Amino acid sequence: MSNLPDTNQFRPVRPVVLRWSRHPSCVGLARLELRKALGRWGLSALEGSATLVLSELLTNAARHARVSPGREIETHYVPGPDGLQIEVHDASEDPPEPRTPNPEASDGRGLVLVAALADTWGVSARQGPGKMVWANLTLPARANGSPDHG
Hints:
The protein is α+β, with helices and mostly antiparallel strands. The chain is 29% helix and 23% strand. The protein is built from 3 helices and 5 strands; from the N terminus they run βααββαββ. It has helices at 25-41, 47-64, 110-117, and strands at 16-20, 73-80, 83-90, 120-125, 131-138. It has a 5-stranded antiparallel sheet with strand order 1-2-3-5-4. A hairpin with a 5-residue loop joins strand 4 and strand 5 (131-138). Helix 1 (25-41) runs antiparallel to helix 2 and helix 2 packs antiparallel against helix 3. The longest helix is centred in the middle third of the chain and has 18 residues, at 47-64.
């Protein structure tokens, strides 16, 4: 057995970057990929909130981003020491607009849910045309003050 340190622990964790069509079935596939990444990174405690935030941001991009047919949406799952950043990139310059949902409507709650579940969220410019909508989620703290890694 070697006395050398395990070099895997020193490798930086890379974000997961994926591209999606605007088809609604891609939302479920994106959630599956996010679940896999969270498990690898020891961030499974964020799974419920993270997959719902991703669903809402990706659905908004697919429904409302007015771009040329064939343009893809890109997701970035970026792990950090105490949480995760979810990014959804699309080629539309139009920012998402939160609205007060109609209690009888079946839609219009996406950004309200994102704001409730994420620690912070916002819209930023990106390289190339369009925008990036992002949300940050932090691991819940344990009673002793250290992050709960699952």
